[in-house]
Design goal:
Length: 478
């Protein structure tokens, strides 16, 4: 696992510990609900997960503000479905929770079903999980699963890079202006089984004509990757780091791009010590490469994009074991070089502590939990705060920010249940100024394996019955 794997996924995905262990080494053929597959030291992974997450764009404010959202508990409870009767294919049922939340429960007879781009998918791969043999799609609509035809295309990857051959097929379509793709297992090992290389794809926000193609070598702490732009109309690839110092790229374990795709944060880990990790800001237009630690003269360890003009710089103090103790955040204006401290020396949140408190970070926002369980959401670009009034954080609770940073998902968990055991779900709408939650009944009859935002308004939970006969996709619209 590398720093950028967490940034790409962990802010929208929360697998339970058992599932995380099983899927770390599996092929990520579905982008949603699967956690990254490269494994690092457990304590380091926990530290990275909280500070290396995908960023969201937020509007600036000239003055610091503090808003208060009042928490209220909905009286109506959700009745979670848990029938073990196989439907013989997918079916759907609807529910409304307290007139505030619309729920859709998709019941399936196999784990092979997925959900992507607003569609339920049924993909059939060959024995090697390389060739897609068949694909079916349904749209949940008015309490039914309506079959949908998509114009599926097949494209090829066939590239020699640093004396390694990357090859295979992937599949894609554009529907209502939105691009989606599917890719099987293309990892290759040398004859001795000692060296691995692989390729993966990523969507580019706002584009449906190209994908980000990532060529990688190694696993775990030896993982390195190199990105290319793959043009879908021609099948040609474009260099993104032309002219970048090869020594930087040889260390790189990935890059995160700004929304305009003009700027990139290139990260590298030259050794197993996280303290040795380095990061660079790259400007494609000017060709300049700047080490993040030099930005603003504050010695930042890493950065995140708040928007195309602003970085959030992270400075943290570590203990002897290189675990993060506290974090200081700065808003950095890229064009002027002006740096503004927005949160100072704040304890870092560790969920294994007996009474966890501190900061959970989500790119350009963070959740700040006091020692008494009071919760604030902090805009790390402006310093503005939103207090979650009437709410007390408990050990085991969790939060996730939606893609645009406007809604905060709240989860309470029952540690006595198998899987995630989500006993309560809530959402704080930071734009509308409301924060509500509802209790769930029947969750203990399911093994809930993953939860995450599908879009800005929809949260999904992947689950199965305890006998593993029936699978569920539980979807909530807020």
């Amino acid at each position: 696992m590398n720093m950028n794997d967490y940034r790409r996924a962990m802010d929208r995905i929360s697998p339970d510990p058992d599932l995380k262990e099983r899927i770390m080494s599996q092929k990520n053929t579905k982008r949603k609900y699967l956690s990254p597959r490269r494994v690092v030291n457990g304590l380091l992974a926990a530290a990275l997960a909280a500070v290396c997450l995908f960023t969201v764009a937020l509007a600036a404010s000239p003055e610091l503000r503090t808003a208060v959202l009042s928490f209220f508990q909905m009286e109506e409870r959700e009745q979670v479905p848990s029938s073990s009767v196989s439907p013989g294919g997918p079916d759907i049922s609807n529910a409304e929770i307290g007139q505030l939340v619309k729920a859709q429960y998709i019941r399936m007879d196999s784990y092979r079903y997925g959900f992507s781009n607003g569609l339920l998918t049924d993909l059939t791969w060959d024995e090697d999980w390389k060739i897609l043999l068949d694909a079916k799609f349904w749209e949940p609509k008015n309490g039914e699963l309506v079959p949908v035809e998509v114009d599926m295309h097949t494209s090829q990857v066939d590239i020699m890079f640093r004396d390694l051959h990357y090859q295979g097929e992937f599949y894609w379509y554009v529907r209502d202006g939105q691009l989606d793709y599917f890719s099987g297992d293309h990892r290759t090992w040398d004859e001795e089984g000692e060296q691995a290389w692989d390729w993966n794809l990523s969507l580019i926000p706002g584009r449906n004509d190209a994908l980000l193609l990532r060529l990688s070598t190694g696993t775990q702490m030896d993982y390195r990757e190199y990105p290319l732009l793959y043009h879908l109309d021609t099948g040609e690839t474009e260099e993104l780091f032309a002219g970048v110092d090869p020594a930087v790229l040889e260390q790189s374990d990935g890059a995160i791009w700004s929304d305009s795709f003009r700027l990139a944060l290139i990260s590298g880990r030259p050794s197993e010590e996280f303290s040795d990790a380095r990061e660079w800001l790259y400007d494609r237009e000017s060709g300049t490469l700047t080490e993040v630690s030099t930005l603003g003269g504050i010695g930042a360890k890493m950065a995140a994009f708040a928007d195309d003009d602003t970085l959030i710089l992270y400075c943290f103090n570590n203990d002897e074991e290189e675990l993060i103790q506290d974090v200081t955040f700065y808003s950095y204006d890229i064009s002027s070089g002006r740096t503004t401290k927005t949160l100072d020396a704040t304890p870092y949140y560790r969920n294994w502590d007996e009474h966890p408190s501190g900061v959970m970070t989500f790119g350009s926002r963070c959740v700040l939990i006091s020692e008494t369980g009071q919760v604030q959401v902090v805009d790390l670009k402006t310093g503005n705060r939103t207090m979650l009034g009437g709410f007390t954080f408990q050990k085991g609770d969790d939060f996730m920010l939606n893609p645009s940073g406007t809604k905060l998902l709240y989860l309470a968990r029952d540690n006595q249940s198998e899987g995630l055991g989500i006993s309560q779900i809530g959402v704080a709408d930071l734009e509308k100024g409301v924060f509500f939650a509802f209790d769930r009944e029947g969750y203990e009859n399911l093994y809930e394996g993953g939860v995450g935002w599908d879009d800005d308004n929809t949260v999904s939970i992947r689950a199965r019955t305890l006998d593993n006969e029936t699978h569920y996709l539980l979807m909530y619209q807020f």
